[in-house]
Amino acid sequence: MILLNKFPYNSGHLLVLPRQHCGDLLKLSDEQYNDLQNTLKLAVKSIQEVYQPSAMNIGMNHGAAAGAGLPDHLHYHLVPRWNGDLNFFPLIAETKLVIEDLSESYEKYLKYFQNLSGAAR
User: Do 55 and 81 form a contact (C-beta atoms < 8 A)?
Assistant: First the structure.
């Protein structure tokens, strides 16, 4: 699945996760792992086409000691980045500015995926 992050680090921040509740990448079947990686690739392409960032961070916190907050909730973070952006980490008083409201991000991605879906017919 591809989801918007409820608390984005930057505009367009997505999460990619398997449908199966799982907290360990090694417990996914080969089919589930391949599906997750193909979905990750699709999400990267959507960010590039919708937001046209300079780059992006792609990462996963695997296990509680690495910062994974929810058991059985394996997911990748995809964070669009632009040269000179300062929104990735809070700098002052634990406050960050995200330029775009989640509803705006949702509409942009919805349009992209609807167009993609229509092209596949």
Answer: yes
